[in-house]
Every structure is written in structure tokens, then in C-alpha cells.
């Protein structure tokens, strides 16, 4: 019930959707029955956890973090305390009035009676999630419904009165606005390369970012000018041009632009403002290309993985280390903005631009803590990312927090950040805690 129902919470529930079915439950029950009939005096919990978590249900799971979450559930439930009176809601000690205890060994009828009498209404706490997950789930449902209603609205103007803009007029205005904003933007990377005394890993990353931005800017200008010709009657409106017009009218990112940009769940207006911020960061770097920014806005890069790899490359060259034996290690500072930092990192690079979902970061204690009510995201301070050898990567009292580009998670995975915690890491695994770079 837990692994199936968790799917409704979207990205915070699972990175991917899996076809769990009643057959998985039936086969697991048969396997459990066979084990119990042939088991010695002690229940083989480890064997059962492996069969259920890696074969029966685990056979569907292909994402490493989803598998880790499924195994965390099995570690919590499948233990000797299950046959005694124990709490069935994971890590629910802090929640007041929300509890479901397992009964002592009894008959089947008594188990059913216990469930009917003591199990409360559905709550995210039953899954190990924070109650905020319910807000996110309901908000997503509402957004999908209203988006669908908007898409079903007639596109043609009804002529109901003066001053009412048609979809085409709205699209024309947005297209011209986009052209005014980005029409003159373009990076001269060839001139930049000629002016560099040395082109190191960091310079390569920023130049690649500029190249991708140039491709996106060129596509935006080409498609908008083509659409304007269509509006003027000089070109026949093609299917792609109509799709672009609809996207501009609906305030969504056009498909042709999305293919050449970064993953994003934003509306077009928010996306264009974010795009301008990204261009600004690259413009600032062009003013001093020999050095990286004092604090790099990692969320403002199309390929953040490349920047993290360059940190390892620089460390490998500096210390004569083998690149394939290095990993990134994060150290969270107490500074909440780039202006508060004194200078560049001496042993890596400072990054910023991430938000924690599923929990919050307590700056005072430097630990992961439970989210505040109705606080969906918690901003992360400046983090120092450095390269260390795998042997020196201390993971004691550490939650290996996955970092994603968008709330969709799954295919937008970037890396793992090491965050300190006093609670068991399993608590944050079941809570779906992750860092998100680009929030819609």
C-alpha cells in the first residue's frame, strides 16, 4: 500500500512511475508463506528484505534513489519489532496525534478490527513525508486542472467588446517583447578565446555555456522573425509557427526553444527573466575570464555537471591526483548570498542557487531539520564544493542529498551533496529530501 500510494505525490514520491501491481503483492505473499513454513526459529528478515526490495518490487525499480527509498521502507518495517507493538508511521515521533501502532500477534479478524478502529485518514506522515507534501500534491492537481481548462478555451476572438486582445495580438506583443530583450544578445566566443592567455577547465565550461546560449538565441530570433512574417501575411503559417503562437499566448515555453535550452517547468515570462539572469552571469564572467566568479550561480548553468567536473579537473592538475579517483564534496557555509563572501574558495568553488524540498536547512546549527508548516522550499546558503579522493569522503552523520535541476527530478539529476544531519539518513530518504535548482 505504501509503495503504490506514494506515487500520487509526484517527484517527491518517486523519480519515475513504476507499474506496481497486485501480482507483486500476491507473489511476495507466496514467497513469505514459503519462507515462514520452512524457516528455523528466527525469521530471515535479511533474506526477505532482499527478495522484496531487489526482486519482487525492486525488479520494477530502475532509479537508484527510488531503490534506496524502497529499501529504507523495508529496513524500517521488516524487523523483529514488527511482531510486537511498534509505530508503523516512519519517524512520526515529532507529530502530535498522528500514529498507527502494530498490534501484538493475534488472529486475522482482530488485525482487521485493529485497522478499522485505529488507522486514521490518509496523511503524508504515513509515508514518512512531511505534511507539506499534501499541499504540493493538491497544488499540482489544481494547476493541471486549470491548465487543461485554459487549453480548452476557444482561440478565436468572439468580438465581445472593444479593447479585448485576440490570441494573435497577444502573441504578437510577446514576440516583439522577446525580440527587444534578446535580439541584440550574442557572445563572441572566438574573440574571447583569442584573448585568453590560458584556457583551463573553468574557461572551457563557460565558453561551452556561451556556445549553447548562442544557439538558443539564434533559434529564438529566427523563429520569432519567421512568425512575424506570417502575421504580416508574407509567409504561410506553418504548423510550427502556429505552435509557437499558441505557446506565446499560453505563456508556455515553445517546443523549439525548450529543445535547445535547459530543463524547466517555468511559465514563459518567468523563464525569460531567468534566461536574462543567466546571460548576465556570463556577461560578468566575460569581464574577467581568467577567473571564475567569486560565487558561481550553479542553477544558472545549462550544464552544471560540467562545472562540477571542472572542479575535479583543476584539483587533479594542481595536486597530481588521478581524476577517476576524485569525487565532489560539499561544505555548507553560513553565508546566504554572494555579497557576504569575502573572496573565492581556496580549495574548490563557491556555488549558490539551490532550494531544499522535503525539509529545511538550519543555518544556525548547520543541520537538516524538519520543514516549517506551509514552507515548500528552503533556500540553501553558499556551498563550497571541492574535490577529494574517495577514501577521504567522510559520510558519517551525512545525508547524501540528491540535487536535481527541476521538481520533476528523475532525468534532471546532477550530483549528490553531502549535508550534515543528526537524524538517521533514512528519515530524509523517506521524506524525499532533495535540492532543486530551478523552481517553477
| Record field, number of beta strands | 11
Structural class comes to alpha+beta
Mean pLDDT: 89
Helix content: 40-55%
Trace the largest sheet across and list its strands: 7-4-11-9-10
Strand percentage, roughly? 5-15%
Largest sheet: 5 strands, mixed
Globally, the shape reads globular
Query: For the terminal residues, how far apart are their CA atoms?
Result: 31 Å
Uncertain segments are: none
Tell me the Rg in angstroms: 26 Å
> What is the H/E order?
HHHHHHHHHHHHEHEEEEEEEEEHE
Distinct helical segment count:
14
Q: TL;DR?
A:
The chain has 440 residues and is of the alpha+beta class.
What do you see in this structure?
The protein has helices at residues 2-5, 22-38, 45-56, 64-77, 108-118, 132-151, 167-182, 189-195, 201-231, 239-250, 255-259, 268-287, 304-319, 425-430, and strands at residues 295-297, 326-332, 348-352, 355-357, 360-362, 367-369, 377-379, 383-389, 398-404, 413-420, 434-436. The radius of gyration is 26 Å and the shape is globular. Strand 9 and strand 10 form a beta hairpin. The strands form 3 sheets. The protein has a 5-stranded mixed beta sheet. A 4-stranded mixed beta sheet has the order 1-3-8-2. Strands 5-6 form a two-stranded antiparallel sheet. The longest helix is centred in the middle third of the chain and has 31 residues, at 201-231. It has 440 residues and is α+β, with helices and mostly antiparallel strands. The two termini are 31 Å apart.
